[in-house]
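Before surveying the methods themselves, let us examine one representative protein, written as a sequence plus integers encoding its fold.
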Amino acid sequence: MKITREMIIEAAERLQSEGKNPTLTAVRAAVGGGSFSTIQPVLSEWRDGQKAPTAPIREFAPQAITDRVQALAAEIWSEALELANGRLKAEREALQAERAQYEAERDEAAELADELTTEIETLKSLNEVHMQTIENQTTQLAEHEARIVDLNQALAVSTSTNTHLEDRLEAEKARIETNQKMYQELSQRNRELEQEAARADAVIVALKQDMDRLNVEAVSRETKITDLTSKLFVGSSKLTELETELRLTKEQAATYQRRFDAVQDEIKEIYKAKANRKGLKPKSEDGSND
């Protein structure tokens, strides 16, 4: 039966709903077979789709920051942002390199698991052949023993053919001994095949454990880079708020300057009016007569 992508995803979701970990081995058993190299890419894609996005953390700057502190804060945030970007880029590149190496090791492990599975199936087939051979030899051995009994009875009945029967008896004994040796050799070979199958099963278990560990490490590193991205977004938001406050402060200062200039113009007009009423020259801005 061909294993499809839908069958793999359905098996993983069913295992997850039952509170079980959808590992490669568990999914393969749930779909009833299939190669690890076929199941692994679909299972990885499904796991990536299960990850929930992390909500960004927002913090607001204090309201009592002065103009000078705002400018200094903007510069500090700019430098911090550059440092964070550099660090994030370096860690992202390192994570990508590690992930590429992990994926290569994972694919290699999946291929090795497929090869070992094929070899185990071959060993099991050979074992079945050997067991069938042993069964046939056992049947032949029983037939030979029955034949020996018949020969012994014939020997007792007919002494005239004693020599001939003894020769045949010796030949049958030799054949029995040969069959017994073959039976022992086949039994020894069967035990060796069972030992090899047990070692292969142990290797597969170890490989599956390594693959599960590598999957856990990949999830941990992806969580780390998500946290760093969230922190970078928070820093950018704070910098935007500081720039907005600085712009508003500059606009207020310009408004105050215009109002101050208007008041000075009004004062000059008042001095001119007083000088005209008294017949005096208007004072200059420093208070002295021109």
Residues 65-278 form a domain with the Helix Hairpins fold (CATH 1.10.287).
